[in-house]
UniProtKB/TrEMBL annotation:
It holds the Pfam family Gpi1. InterPro entries: PigQ/GPI1. One of its GO terms (biological process) is GPI anchor biosynthetic process. This is PIGQ acetylglucosaminyltransferase. It comes from Chaetorhynchus papuensis (pygmy drongo). GO terms for cellular component: endoplasmic reticulum; membrane. The chain crosses the membrane at residues 200-219, 270-289, 335-354, 361-388, 394-416, 437-461, 467-492. Keywords: Membrane, Transferase, Transmembrane, Transmembrane helix. The gene is Pigq. GO terms for molecular function: transferase activity.
Amino acid sequence: MVLKVFFPSCCSSADSGILIGRWISEQNSAVILAVVHFPFIPVQVKQYLGEVQRVTKVSVSVLGSWSNSKQEKEESLSEFLEDLGTIFCHEPWIQISKEGDSKFWSCSTLQKHSKNPQEEEIILVYYDQHKVMLSHLHPPLDTAGQRAEDASKLSAIFDTVARSRVLFMTDRYDEGPIKLTHWQSDGVEASIIVELMKQASVPACMLLTFLLSLLSGICRSRVLKFWPLSFLWSKLSTCEQLGHRLQHLQIISSNKKAQNQNQLMRKANIFVSLLIDVALGILLMSWLYRKNRIGHLADTLIPVADHVAEELQDLLQWLMGAPAGLKMNRALDQVLGRFFLYHIHLWISYIHLLSPFIEMILWYVGLSACLGLTVALCILSDIIALLTFHIYCFYVYGARLYCLKIYGLSSLWRLFRGKKWNVLRQRVDSCSYDLDQLFIGTLLFTILLFLLPTTALYYLVFTLLRLLVVIVQGLIHLLVDMIDSLPLYSLILRLCRSYRLAAGVKFRVLEQQDGKPLRLLMQINPLSYGGVVQTYRLPTYSCYPRDSWASLCKKLFLGELIYPWKHKGEKQN
């Protein structure tokens, strides 16, 4: 059989002692975690390992001996190391010895309690203990067959080192009876700034949790369930984004400790996303309030709205004539044209009525950028929806009229074929009609058929205008979704410390010598940027349903409405 010994590269220069780690019998592997130096008392070592095992829930034990002879190897030390196997009683007892500065070590096993000891081939695998402890192994997306089995074997190694964090908290400056060598035995890594932030974060999180619970209680109150407020809360994208950010604040201010690596990364991604969002919002707010840019924007808004209204009037005048040489139904064309022109007149009056207050409204709206760039973008989307409300009304009128004629023609077409729609069974059944019904159906079918081109032209024009507004709002919400869902912390971590996000490992064969064990160097393969986004992408609340092209074309042909908002409960992951 093949025995795999995972040895930390930081312990290659450690003084002689005993090897402590975890024995994984299923894989016939030994994961070395630290070296205990001479002198030591075996009872104290066993007590220390028992405390570590109780805290970490990892079966840590003494696996063998380590001999680092700076000079020629002494016979008494070799015999003493062999006798340690009878004290700690581990099968097999691993003996690793290094002579001087040689790169090629001797490695052997002892099986004193075995009746039929077998000579095992040993593979010595060096690994970076610091990187393995801080990294999180991500299993492959295709977890089938051999790849899933290999991932589980590797995850056992990573999990053993990560859960033994308590073992690495002791350094050589501690006055305890046991001296260890591991990746931070020269001094425990710490930062005064990080420790101060940890101490200050506890009262800050408690205060933020109280404020958020108070705010969420107000949001869940019955006041918001009445008709006007509930309608606005469900239709305005600003309210949806504020509710989404409120949930994010509740997650990161929660006192509950993260149970696993994914929850910890999710909290970190949300925190960094909020920081960047607020920072971009403050930059936008500082740009708006410089050089009276809000006043210039308010002065530009009214002429732009008047220009759009004039272009719509010219378009309706063109439709009321002979558009593109098409012959329309004169009476219906005049009625629809005057109806829409009257709505434009009402819209212009509405805009000029609000013109004295637009600058003040924009001034207060600009303050909302301190809540984040996404909130400001959602407010911009709602402002576009309000400024183009007349286009939405035109689209609704045209779509309803066109839909009425399409369904009327389809029903009358079934009448010609002697069929009808069975509402109870939801199917088309045969039916016999008398002469009067067929005559009236023929007249109605002829009228609707000749009026259809005029209605279809108005519907087509206003649908194109509506789609233009929806595309603009969709681009804004696409940017909001990107800021909300991108795992920025994970991407920064992948850029700066790629070993923290491990997709797997690769083994590099080192220089070999006859009679010495095979030496391998385990290196971490980082997760790709696409894998980082796919793994840690945050859930979003999109304001547009994900319709396929076939579904969208079907809606346009049948005259069904395209809503610019999300219905409640449609959560996009």
